Amino acid sequence: MATKTYIVGNWKMHCSPAEASLLVNRLVTDVKRVSSDTVVVLCPPVLDLTTVRSELRGHDRFSIGVQNIYPMDEGAFTGETSAAMVKGLVEYAIVGHSERRHVFGEKDGLIAQKVSASMRNGLTPILCVGETKTDHANGHAKQVVFDQLEAGTSLLTEEELHDLIIAYEPVWAIGTGENAEAKDVAGMFARIREWFETKYSKTISQAIPILYGGSVNGGNAKMYLDLDDCNGCLVGGASTNYKDFAKIIEAV
Ligand code: PGA
Mean pLDDT, the chain, as a whole number? Predict the structure, then answer.
């Protein structure tokens, strides 16, 4: 079984470097306890990475991730940032977040390349999967998630799967305050593990950390973290509120 718990904070497009510095300072002061085997991963905008890194010096339970990367290592790709460029600053990369899929139109093929680029550069990809409200209503959630898993892992070797994290984030639950019910999350986690077991092995299926994301806050995090199969949470809105995020970290 996966042994670590990941509390990942996706700040999205919030915080200037000065605000980032303040937020991290307040967070590390406010968090009273980080349980053993818990990894807190802050994913600020790229502009804030050096600031956050220097603020986190000496706080070894905190790591840093990026919210997105471009699959090529360098080149004429205006406005993009590569895994190769940030690898000295971060350890994780969120890939295939629903906003990248639905606001920016990223397709499975590009997401697979991003997962592969993260691995190639020594970053742990956090591959996000999840169904839309329509898929959910039509009973297609499982198939959508399976298709995203199939595509997202298509360029990885079996060896590399040991360094992959999956975040199940139903699109309808992201940023809406409409968090999924724990029993439905447990059901989807079981299906995701089944998918890995059928395609690879029981060992891989049990070793892969699976996180829940979608309107997680200080009040509901424990309900997910208490699920047998849950290895953490991916938190959006509540991660820029240091008091709420501290509560989530302490809920582990
Ligand atoms: P939310 O976002 O917690 O604001 O719903 C989750 C996410 O973006 O990963």
Answer: 97
